[in-house]
Write a structure and sequence with these properties.
The protein has helices at 6-11, 18-25, 29-32, 39-64, 69-85, 87-94, 104-130, 141-162, 171-184. It is mainly alpha-helical.
């Protein structure tokens, strides 16, 4: 079943309702429970699909390029480009609506798709470090460097997705310069 993203995109995740989704799909609200047990399950599915789409985009970059600093720059640019091209998916990936009834165990499962993305970024940074392209000499080593790359990519993506109508600039050139500067500092 394809879940309509437009329901949440236009009204925000907090106002997502099973009734609205059912209406968009042409179902009665009760029939959705044959597919999903709750609103949170729908959000988990949307988040997992978004994470897999972003992961695929990032892995295409990693597999195409070597283990050098340019791969890390391209990885960061790819993350932001994907977010710009998929703003609704990016928001599903970033925002979680947690029910007060939701258990800690279920919350941990819903975050696993985001964790998988971070692991992929850590592995890319590790490859560059092992190839000698970056030093990795920080107190937290490669994991801290990966977190820095992810934080920059995520921050740039968030700004562009939420403030996209306020600036008209060559964002990709700006991103490339920022990621190059970040990664060059890791020598």
């Amino acid at each position: 079943m394809r879940i309509p993203r437009s329901t949440a995109a236009f009204r925000g995740l907090e106002s997502l309702s099973l009734r609205a989704i059912a209406r968009e799909l042409g179902f009665g609200p009760a029939s959705l429970y044959g597919y999903f047990d709750s609103k949170e399950a729908i959000l988990e599915t949307l988040g997992a699909r978004a994470a897999e789409s972003l992961r695929g985009s990032l892995m295409r970059v990693v597999s195409r390029l070597g283990d050098d600093r340019s791969m890390l720059t391209a990885l960061g640019v790819s993350y932001v480009r994907w977010a710009r091209a998929n703003p609704e998916d990016f928001q599903f990936l970033c925002q979680r609506v947690l029910s007060r009834r939701q258990s800690t165990k279920r919350h941990a499962r819903s975050r696993s798709s985001v964790h998988t993305l971070f692991v992929e970024i850590v592995e890319a940074v590790q490859r560059a470090h092992q190839a000698g392209a970056i030093s990795g000499e920080t107190p937290g080593g490669v994991v801290h460097l990966a977190f820095g790359l992810w934080a920059m990519a995520h921050g740039l993506a968030s700004l562009q997705v939420t403030q996209r109508s306020t600036r008209h600039a060559d964002f990709e050139a700006i991103e490339r310069a920022l990621f190059d500067a970040l990664v060059t500092g890791w020598r």
